[in-house]
Amino acid sequence: MPFPLTDEQRKIVDDRGGELLVSAAAGSGKTRVLVERLLDRVTKEGLDIDRFLVITFTKAAAAELRGRIAQELSDRLAETPNDRHLRRQTTLVYKAQISTIHAFCSALLRESGHLLDLDPDFRLCDEGERDVLMGQVLEEVLDRRYEDLTEDSPFALLVDTLSAGRDDSRLAQIVTNIFGQVQSHADPARWLKGQKALWTLEGVSDLSQTLWGGLLLEDARRQARACRDRLLQALALCQEDELLLINYAPPLTATLEGVEDFIRETTWDGACARLPIPFPDAGRKRKRTLALSPFAEERVEQAKKRMTAIRKRCGTTLDRLAEPFTGNTAAQLEELALSAPVVEALMDLVLDFQTAFSQEKARRRLVDFSDLEHFAVKLLTDGAGEPSELAQYWGSRYAEVLVDEYQDTNQVQNAIFYAISDGGRKLFQVGDVKQSIYRFRLADPSIFLDKYRRFPDGDRAEEGEPRKRVLSRNFRSRPQVLEGCNDLFRSIMSTEFGELDYSDDQALVPGKEFLEGPALELCGGADPYALELDAIDLSFLGDQEGERDDKNQLEARFAARRIGELLDAPLMVEDKKGLRPLRPSDVMILLRSPGPVLHHYLQALNEEGIPWTADSGEDFFETTEVNVALAILQIVDNPRQDVPLIAALRSPVYGFSGDKLALLRADCKGEDFYTALVRAAQGGDGECQDFLDSLEELRFDAGDRTCRQLMWHVYEKTNLLGVFGAMEGGGERQGNLLALYALAGQMENSGCRTLFQFLLRLNRLRSSDARLGAAAGNGREGEGVSVLSIHRSKGLEKPVVLVCGLTRRVNRDSLMRPVLFHPELGVGPRGLDRVRMVEYPTLARRAVARQVERELLAEELRLLYVAMTRAREKLILTAALSEGTSILDRLGESLPISSLSLEQQQSVGAWVLLHALTRPEGEGLRALAGLAEMDQGTRPTGPAWDIRWVDGTALGEEGRAEGIYTDLPREDPCDDGLAARLAWVYPHMAAASLPSKLTATQIKGRALDREAAEDAAPPIRQGQPITRPSFIAEERGLTPAQRGTALHLAMQYLPLDGDGSPETVAAELDRLTELGFLTSLQRGAVEPERLSAFLTSPLGRAMAAAGERCRREFKFSVLDSALNYFPEGKGEEVLLQGVIDAWFEGEDGTVTVVDFKSDRVRPGGEGARAEEYRPQLNAYSLALSAILGKPVNRQVLWFFATDSLVEL
Fold first, then answer.
1. How high is the mean pLDDT of the chain?
2. Distance between CA 318 and CA 1153 in Å, rounded?
3. In a designed cystine with 412, which of 271, 373, 674, 897 is the match (CB 3.0 to 4.6 A)?
4. Is the pLDDT confidence value at 1034 over 80?
């Protein structure tokens, strides 16, 4: 039965006027509309369903769409069983062209590829095979170039400019990157040749006439206009007070005049002449003619603070604005002319590589996915890009071409659609440019945007004229979610920032009625479905010395506990039967890049007893089971390989112990390990003989089997699937082994039939840094919380969605590549001063970098939109703020929101918080930021948000839940004896879980103690600690932890003798800096007065008097009773390691342990803080007593913050 359509959906179904572009918002039923439009034409116009070409972008989507069409046909046929036409369509639907673009191109080439002399028996190679082949061909191309190298040739200049280090790996990376990027163009060779012509720069009299200069000039004027608006705000604030008017109004006015002059300039040279823009110092008058009341004084102080912050920020912006204008047109053209030969040589090299690569693929009868599209374009278009005769022939087969997810097309695909749809006249396109998140896969949202801006509305379009229509009614989510998204994106998405104005046409309109009553009653009348923003204050991490809890770990714990609260309440969600309690499988956690932080979220969910499902994030080739399988295959191919042989023997499959392997090696020195096994077997070792017999059986069969057959034979003979399936995560492990078997099948189909060929191809694949994701796995049995990347969530939906990690810095690494690329602006290389061998940014690079950065930020904005629109009933946004209220202070300076203020933020979370500061419910955040109340005016804000400021200190405590969501009901055992045996627990399990090594840091202390404990068991951390970059440290100073490190370094090397005056200490610190013991930033962070206070104290004098009996930074390793640190450690020993700041022995023989503390502590609070460090000092004393053979008499802490001593 045809499903009911809304008015806007019906207009789209009935529109037959010509090319139609449908902008369909998230959850608006675009697939339903596409299916209904197709079937409407089938039933009303009598067309067969195979007269339509339907293009989707994944095989799964194509299969799902075909299934929906078939089901709808079946439903309609049930209503009219005698309809012969419909009955015919139920058969034709399975031969209809509903496929991906690559499947269509492949069919086209199979039928018409002979027109391009394409081998009809071509084979499609996968990405791994293509990457390996690309590397081989590029190496050959470079070798040929080096053979003909001359000192002054363009290629020599290219190598000098773009290579790095002692090889040309960077140059090879640049070539492959540009080659990959230009594949999005319909004619890559023409584009590369056009780049060479672009760099000739003939007839340029002003840089504004070039693409690069015009973009940079317009961008600078845009920034200047934004500064003008902010400076006008600052000038208005000066009216609040006489002194502000006298001291600040004149310099602000001068700067405004300079900005206005710059904005009026439309040429490059004119703009250069207006720079730098005047920025005079403020006046210094301090006395008013009339005194102010305390209230007025406070109001003026607030105005001054805001005005000076605006002025400072505008000054920084104006300085950055002027950076590209380093010279006039003549100087810049001269500089560009130096880089032109390099660019021309680079384009020639890419062209040579493209030709060689195409020839090699033709020789091997291979085509890749890019070839499918480009060959199709050659067949379907003429030299001018218009449809060829073949395109007209193919186009005549189709009554209409329907393209789903049109926002993710590129120029090549668009040319194909244009050609086979009679120049677009039979083209139906549906998509949502706000969900275009695949630019890294060469998707070009500007294609959709260009048509959306050019095409008139369908109701106003003339007959045959291209038109657009909009689907805005959302049938997925509650109004709280939709209106929350609308309010946020109206505020932050614009043409300048996001490439699209979030107008009423783009807004989400609630279209579904939700049940409300019972859910509201459970929450005491509050709205449980309100969009929730949780700002998590983690500023305490910077206050404590020593190891700091990972910010991501604490945010993960918050997310897991918040999910637990929703499950406990429970939140009621709607399904087809009505309202029901929330289940873990109803929840989804979305992350921008899960890989580095996924383990934190899985661990946090486990702590709360909440089941989960997620991709492991582990590299397929790094999993244990895959490595064991490959090791066995390697020794089947050649057993005289020690590493894979030992790996196989040590694996669970054969179970040789480490001691056994060591004895085998000791008995046969100087020989390979296979020989050692043979000799041991000859000596009567049955275990070795069994292994050799098994290996011989596998090797005997290897010659008669393909690599896929042999792999399955190995699985069967060694029971690999059974062995690893019985381990924890067995399903995931078996999935990885089956994926390896499938990979062997793919390689076998591509020509790698023998085991040697398979292993060789696999080795090349791994050496090319190819990375395959491991199989998805469940942390617990049953359904659970989904943890996904935002990209993976596209097309999915859940009742509750948590978007986490919003304060992660936007990744701008792509802007650091040696040569930048943009499809319109071309390449942006660095220049090279060949005399000083110093690189510098060219004008082209600045322009390309600016445009790429703006597009990157637009993509991040669209990713946020995709993430937020996945929620059906409740949306939660979390922002972990390691700087606490400081970030709110900075964000307050960026209000009101503008495209420039958004561009200056470093994270997506900052965009959300900026908007939250302007909402009615943001009064708490505004109070923390010291902002005055804002006039909300008449701006509609939709349903209230639930904005929370969360104290993160409690998140540092690890939770332990009972697993109330996953426990299964117990069953009565049928056999008491069996139950007892199955319930047996190893009696010394507690001791088995004790670490063999322990650092004082793990008790309480600072990170320096880890220096002497490389193999200890610290809290789990992934990767290297991320330190603040030097350029940020120079601007904002060192973090509290870094300042503490600087103090400890100073105390390690500072002489204790001397008068201890601040002047003497400062001179010593300067000397240590010159010698390299301290960096300049560390030197600036150390206050001589603090060290002087210690050196002149009785404790400092006692340490100085001890002379050589005083030791600083004393590292130790001692065995100690585990019972001193663990209640279950009776009878066990633990290796205690650490670093003592200082200890000394007095003349009377008393030993004193000293620990320096840089904690921020208020006067009077030293005693309480010292008690926290008592376990650490006790550990130091026990260790030192064991080493010296005498007791430690005193334990002393010195707090630099208050220049005070506490003796424990």
1. 86
2. 55
3. 373
4. no
Structure tokens given for 477:
């989510």
911 φ/ψ angles, rounded to the nearest 5 degrees: -65, -45
In DSSP terms, 537 is beta-bridged to 881, 951
Q: CA nearest 861: which of 1188, 491, 524?
A: 491
Give CB contacts under 8 A, 24+ apart, made by 281-285.
281/251, 282/247, 282/248, 282/251, 283/246, 283/247, 283/248, 283/250, 283/251, 284/247, 285/243, 285/246, 285/247
3-class secondary structure, 595: coil
Distance CA 996, CA 645 (A): 30
Helix locations, 15-168, DSSP H: 30-45, 59-79, 84-92, 101-112, 127-147, 154-162
**How does strand 785-789 pair with strand 776-778?**
unpaired
Give 1141-1196 as a DSSP string. Answer: EEEEE-TTS-EEEEEEE-----TT-HHHHHHHTHHHHHHHHHHHHHHHTS---EEE
pLDDT digits (tens, 9 = 90+) for 485-504: 999 999 999 999 999 999 99
d(CA 842, CA 568): 59
Give the 3-state secondary structure of residue 179: helix
Distance of CA 59 to the CA centre of its chain: 26
936 against 1143, higher pLDDT: 1143
Token pair 């109070």 in the structure block, residue:
927
Q: Which of 69-73, 169-173, 266-270, 973-977 has the lowest mean pLDDT?
A: 973-977
- Angle at which helices 188-198 and 169-182 pack, to 10 degrees? 110
Q: Are 962 and 609 spatial neighbours (Cβ–Cβ below 8 Å)?
A: yes
State the Cα–Cα distance between residues 1044 and 546, nearest whole angstrom.
9
- C-alpha distances in Å from residue 1116, one per residue of 710, 940, 1172: 55, 66, 22
CA distance 343 to 175: 11
How remote is the C-alpha of 1013 from its chain's centroid? Answer: 32
Q: Of 388-402, 593-607, 1075-1089, where does mean pLDDT reach its minimum?
A: 1075-1089
149, 155 contact by CB (below 8 A): yes
Residues 6+ apart with CB under 8 A from 23: 431, 432, 433, 452, 468, 469, 470, 471, 505, 506
Structure token digits, residue 310: 């605006």
How are beta strands 612-615 and 776-778 bridged, if at all? antiparallel
What is the C-alpha to C-alpha distance for residues 76 and 87, in angstroms, rounded to an integer? 10
Read off the pLDDT band of 780 (50, 70, 90).
very low
- What 597-600 contacts at long range (C-beta under 8 Å, 24+ apart), as own/partner pairs, is 597/552, 597/556, 597/805, 598/787, 599/1020, 599/1022, 600/550, 600/552, 600/553, 600/555, 600/556
Residues 130 and 364: beta-carbon distance below 8 Å: no
Cβ-contact 747, 772 below 8 angstroms: no
Instruction: Provide the β-strand partners of residue 469.
Output: 22
Between CA 1005 and CA 1012, with CA 1011 as vertex, the angle to 5 degrees is 100
Lowest mean per-residue pLDDT among 380-384, 996-1000, 1153-1157: 996-1000
Q: How far apart are the first and last CA of the chain?
A: 83
* pLDDT given for residue 544 in this prediction: 52
CB atoms within 10 A of CB 183: 18
Task: Name the DSSP class of 571.
Answer: P
Burial 668-701 (b: 16+ CB within 10 A, else e): beeeebbebbbebbeeebeebbebbeebeebeee
What proportion of the chain, given as a percentage, has pLDDT over 70?
90
Rounded distance between C-alpha atoms, residue 863 and residue 806, angstroms: 11
Per DSSP, helices labelled H in 594-668 are 598-607, 624-637, 642-650, 658-666
Dig out the tokens for 1103 from the structure: 């340490």
Q: Return all residues near 1063 (Cβ < 8 A) that are at least 6 apart.
A: 1088
pLDDT of residue 628: 93
